[in-house]
Design brief:
By secondary structure, the protein is of the alpha+beta class. The protein contains 9 helices and 4 strands.
Length: about 190
C-alpha cells in the first residue's frame, strides 16, 4: 500500500512537490518511489519513513489518525457501478463537493453546475476527466473497508475518483484497485 500510495502522489500535480520535499528531507531517492522493490526491506523502511514524514503514517496522525494497524491488503477488480459507489473520505471538502453523499457522481453534478468548494478551482477535475476521454489511464485507487461487504472508501485517489464520476462511460469493464480491510476501519476518523 505504501509503495502504491507514494507512486500515485509523485505522479500528482497537487502532491508531487510536497512529496519531493519530503524525499529530500528523508534522503529517499526517486527510484525507491518510482520503481519500488517491495521485496527489499531497506526500501520498504525508507518508504514507510517517507510516508510518515509526508502524511504521518506511522504516527497515525493527520490523514492516518485512527487508521488501524491490522489492515489486510489485496488487489480487487471493480465494475463501473462499484467504482462509482466508492465514497470519498469523510473530510469537509469532499463531503461538501458531493453535497453530503460522498459519492463521485454527486461531486460531478456539483462541478458541472460550476460550484466550487472553499474557493478551490474545479479545473483539476475537468482536466483529469478530459485525460480519461483521451484514453489516459490512472494509477489504481487505494480503498478501505471494514469488511469485504462494507462500504468502500477511497484512501488515496479522490481526484481520480471524481474524474470517473465526471466521465463514467470511460470506465473499463473492470478497474483494479488496492483494497485494505480491517474490522477496526470504523475507528479511522475519515471512514
Amino acid at each position: 500500500m505504501i509503495a502504491v500510495f507514494l507512486r500515485a502522489e509523485i505522479a500528482s500535480q497537487r502532491h508531487s512537490g510536497e512529496l519531493r520535499d519530503a524525499m529530500r528531507r528523508t534522503a529517499v531517492g526517486a527510484d525507491v518511489v518510482e520503481r519500488p522493490d517491495i521485496s527489499d526491506a531497506d526500501q520498504n523502511a525508507a518508504r514507510r519513513a517517507l510516508l510518515t514524514a509526508r502524511r504521518d503514517y506511522a504516527t497515525r496522525r493527520g490523514l492516518f489518525d485512527g487508521f488501524p494497524t491490522d489492515v489486510t491488503w489485496t488487489r480487487v477488480g471493480l465494475t463501473p457501478r462499484e467504482v462509482l459507489g466508492v465514497r470519498y473520505i469523510d473530510y469537509d471538502y469532499w463531503v461538501d463537493l458531493s453535497a453530503g453523499s460522498r459519492f463521485p457522481t454527486d461531486a460531478a453534478a456539483t462541478i458541472r453546475a460550476g460550484r466550487t468548494i472553499f474557493g478551490e478551482s474545479n479545473q483539476g477535475f475537468l482536466d483529469a476527466a478530459a485525460a480519461l476521454r483521451q484514453g489516459e489511464t490512472f494509477p489504481e485507487l487505494i480503498l478501505v473497508a471494514a469488511d469485504i461487504d462494507a462500504r468502500l472508501v477511497v484512501l488515496e485517489g479522490n481526484l481520480r475518483l471524481t474524474a470517473y464520476g465526471l466521465v463514467p462511460d470511460t470506465l473499463p469493464p473492470e478497474t483494479t484497485a488496492l483494497l485494505g480491510v480491517s474490522p477496526r476501519m470504523v475507528e479511522w476518523d475519515l471512514y
